[in-house]
Amino acid sequence: MMIAGAVLACVIGSGTAEAATADGSSAAQQQSSSHSGQPSGDYDYYLALGDSLAWGYQPDSTGAGIKSGHGYADDLAGYLRAEGDRGLKYVNLSCPGETTGTMLDGACPDLAGSGQTYTVQESAAIAFLKAHPHSRILVTLDIGANNVDGCLSGGSLDSTCVAEGLAAAGTELPQIVAGLKAAAGDRVTFVGMNYYDPFLAEWLTGSAGQTLAEESVALSTTFNGILDAAYGAFGIPVADVSGAFKTTDFTDTVSLDGTTVPVNVANICTWTFMCAPAPVGPNIHATNAGYRVLAEAFEKQLPRRHWHW
Q1: What is the pTM of this model?
Q2: CA separation (Å) from 27 to 123, 140, 142, 228?
Q3: Position 309 in a domain
Q4: Which among 64, 57, 22, 82 is positioned nearest to 145, based on CA atoms?
Q5: Residues of the chain below pLDDT 70
Q6: CATH number of the domain enclosing 112
Q7: Which of 96, 195, 246, 263 is the most buried (most CB within 10 A)?
């Protein structure tokens, strides 16, 4: 059980954000093509909310955390523009290290480093939605994994802390979503997200690690079930990142550096930095290819495109 904190804390670390403008976006985030007449595509704005995965955190060659510019939200914004939303404005309010509690109440661990100018991400998001009552907005959200990050310390796990973190996610995520939905106009689309399991990388360390990897999947499944239920209660589709990573599939095997391993283990090694050598790894965040997998999971949950000519 001592690895549950690592399993569930899929989003930690820090990054550097750009300062937000009055409407909650930065100049770089609001890249758009000028256009006139009828708006193109399906969305006027893409609002990305959440933690370091939404921000696109990655380790650099020294292991230091940076904003990569290749996160899933960045990829999704590019996809929307390529699919017809030529005038799309991209607004990213995510904060590395955010929990469900800090998203509601403030004190995101890396708020200063992120460069965001708000105090509370939820409040900033609500203000943005209220300021654009008639706009066509896509809102994506990934949050909750950091709830149990502090439960693992000194090689042991505080099971009470884990239980409290999961309970908080189950209570606070609905509060987050309820606030966003209440502020949203009738042209706003929401998509949530569940998580991959970075601790599958322990499979490569031997029989004990393989047992721990299997236990971690059970814990990850419980955690994702809490998230899926919270989003489902509001009729919000979920980008199935866990499924895309084949998190529960220990049966199918592939070759990884000449060794036969379960496909879920290979995917974690390929799509995150968990199997990267020091100082880059092990790191729970996604590679460029991994972030592309996350983006595609979101794309699958978007309503069918409506073309405007």
Answers
A1: 0.85
A2: 20, 20, 23, 34
A3: no
A4: 57
A5: 1-40, 149-158, 305-309
A6: 3.40.50.1110
A7: 96
In a domain, 306, yes or no: no
Dihedral over alpha carbons 149, 152, 157, 159 (to 10 degrees): -20
pLDDT score of 306: 53
Residue-wise pLDDT for 224-239, tens only, equals 999 999 999 999 999 9
Rounded-to-integer distance, Cα 74 and Cα 48, Å: 9
Say which residues have a Cβ less than 8 Å from residue 136's Cβ, sequence separation at least 6. 39, 42, 43, 44, 45, 187, 188
What is residue 68's predicted lDDT score, i.e. its pLDDT? Answer: 93
52 domain-assigned: yes
Tell me how many domains the chain contains: 1
Cα distance between residue 24 and residue 128, in whole Å: 6
Strands 45-50 and 137-142: parallel
Q: What is the pLDDT of residue 300?
A: 97
**Can you give the residue range of the structural domain that contains 125?**
4-299
